[in-house]
Amino acid sequence: MMIKNGVDESAVEGTADTHYDIPNLHVSAHHPVVNVPVLWWRSVGHTHTAFVMETLIDELATRAKMDPISYRRKLLKPDARKLRGALDLMEEKSAAWRSKLPKGHAVGVACHEAFDTGVACAVDVSIENNRPRIHRVTVAVDPGVAVNPLTIESQFQAGLAFGVSQVMAKGAITLKDGYVEQSNFDAYTPPYIADAPVAVDVHIVPSTEKSTGCGEPPVPVISPAVVNALSRLTGKRYRALPLVTV
Q1: 29-84: per-residue pLDDT in tens?
Q2: H-run or E-run covering 108
Q3: Higher confidence at residue 198 or residue 36?
Q4: Residues 91, 140: Cα–Cα separation, whole Å
Q5: Is residue 118 very low, low, confident or very high in pLDDT (cuts 50, 70, 90)?
Q6: Is the sign of the CA dihedral 31, 52, 214, 170 positive or negative?
Q7: Are 120 and 109 spatial neighbours (Cβ–Cβ below 8 Å)?
Q8: Where does 164-213 have alpha helices with state H?
Q9: How many alpha carbons lie under 13 Å from residue 81 in its C-beta half-sphere?
């Protein structure tokens, strides 16, 4: 059902249709043949493509020696109104704490549009016991008309907490001879309360456009934002999820 012209669109959404104005862009996906049927994680293709795009863009910003927010804004297409609005609001609402980070902390940012909803995220991260510690998240969202702002806030708080599982060590589900290797929580480590963001503030871009999705768009932005912060702390680039080690 999802295959069109030989391409599984859910595997490349968020990259093949990126809102960044990149003149020479090629997107390909490799599908390994496995003996167990697999399907999407929450947010479908955006789960992995947001991580690919936003860690790449952040690395390019570092190489260009530019502020990561300014770099994204410069690279966005003129018609990427929702992403621009979310990025601008996130920058404004996070400016105070981003300018006063304690020693051993770093900021990571990411933005992504999924299901016609623009999201921008900034995180304050440190490393404790070889695990990322997320002290604060500021997220801005443009979902069109916000019918129930409190519901949107709840969706984003929960979606971000769920997305944190991608950056936890021992967070992978692996297969051997057709069997899942993790049979209980001694082999699989979900995010604990200590792994959840200490504070999350959600800001909604004022809009009169039609309402769009809010359940899945928060999930894909947290992992690249956290990983981009970790790269600033460690000097390493992380290109696979879940994180094996910091």
Answers
A1: 887 777 787 778 889 999 899 999 999 999 999 999 999 999 999 999 999 999 99
A2: strand 106-114
A3: 198
A4: 9
A5: very high
A6: positive
A7: yes
A8: none
A9: 8
Phi/psi at 98 (5° precision): -65, -25
The token duo for 63 is 């190489």
Q: Identify whether the C-beta of residue 14 lies closer than 8 Å to the C-beta of residue 53.
A: yes
Q: What's the number of CA atoms in the CB half-sphere (13 Å) around residue 115? A: 18
- pLDDT classification of 164: cutoffs 50, 70, 90: very high
Burial 171-210 (b: 16+ CB within 10 A, else e): bbeeeeeeeeeeeeeeebbebeeebebeebbbbbbebeee
Please give the model's pTM, rounded to 2 decimal places.
0.93
Q: Please, which contacts does 28-37 make with residues 24 or more away whose CB atoms are closer than 8 Å?
A: 34/175, 35/178, 36/175, 36/178
Closest by CA to 198, choosing from 124, 130, 101, is 124
Q: Are 41 and 47 in contact (CB under 8 A)?
A: yes
